[in-house]
Amino acid sequence: MEIDVVQVAQVATGFEQSADAIGAIAAQIATLTFGTDKAGRNYGDVGARIAAGYDGVESSFRQWGVASKDNTVRLRASVASYQDTDDAAARSIEYPAGER
Fold this sequence. Notes:
The chain is mainly α. The chain contains 3 helices and no strands.
């Protein structure tokens, strides 16, 4: 099986760019606030639940960004490993054992 290492590297770059964008969005979300004071006096309990849910949005985006970065690292490691294995196989064909 052969993989197109250039294509896989481009996919990894795409993941990296996405992770950076997602991280920037998470940072923006973190600057926004919503609490019971914003919901109004009569909606304190509902406001607290909305605020708790809203806090989860930033965390979810952050986790998504971390997962995308992890995919980048794993794809690049796979490409490097594939290239190393391919290079070793090519050398073994070029120089069979004992002919070096």
